[in-house]
Write a structure and sequence with these properties.
The protein contains ten helices and ten strands. α4 packs across α5 and α7 crosses α10. The relative contact order is 0.15. The strands form two sheets. The chain has a five-stranded parallel beta sheet with strand order 1-5-4-2-3. Strands 6-10-9-7-8 form a five-stranded parallel beta sheet. β9, α9 and β10 form a beta-alpha-beta unit. It has two domains: 119 residues, Oxidized Rhodanese, domain 1 (3-Layer(aba) Sandwich); 95 residues, Rhodanese-like domain (Oxidized Rhodanese, domain 1, 3-Layer(aba) Sandwich). By secondary structure, it is α/β, with parallel strands linked by helices.
Amino acid sequence: MNEGQPSRPANMDNIVAINQGRQPQPMTDPQAPALSPQVVRQRIADDHLVLDTRHEAEFGAGHIPGAYNIQLATGQFEQRVGWILPEQSPLILVAANEAAAQRALYKLAFVGLDRRVAAILDGGMDAWLEAGLPTYTVPQISAYDLRQQLEQGTIEVLDVRDNAEWGSGHIPGARHIFYRDLEHQLPAGLDPQAPLAVLCSGGQRSSTAISILLRHGFEDVRNVSGGMGAYEAATSNDLT
């Protein structure tokens, strides 16, 4: 019955409560304390979740293990946070700078999610690295390298676009699952230790998908830079 209908807004209960006045929005700017890397590490051990709001390339270059990557630059930032992150868990923001962290808090406040932000990583990833704390990286693979590895049979592809995008054209042999479903429905038949390229239309949703896969034990994942758009530019003969 809901097929073809717009997606239900994330965090719908909070949105309704805000609109009905049962959950008033704060009259002051949303705030969260800035905590040192050492304190943040302890909070993570106490089951806080890390929300890394940086660009997918910055996330790939080095991020806190277990972090979710949902880019502040996307127009659906607060919706994606509501769709992807498990409910109730306190959040720790990682942002490119203080101004970006504040923008993230403003956006999250629109859907009542700012209340879940327990802290901001003081000094961002630069401070985390200076403290010598562990990081994880995600290789960014070009469409040309992806095509070469597909021809060699050394990599599999996971396409995380929606059904309409998938239906309009995809790489033969690719697996398909919408990125929003990954937290609760991992793709069957994929070896978590085997090389896996993940792509969407441009590289943002695929980076979010990769952050979820890493949390579920996948070890050798690569983000396709430029996504399907770049792949279509690299080849016009490999689509079904």
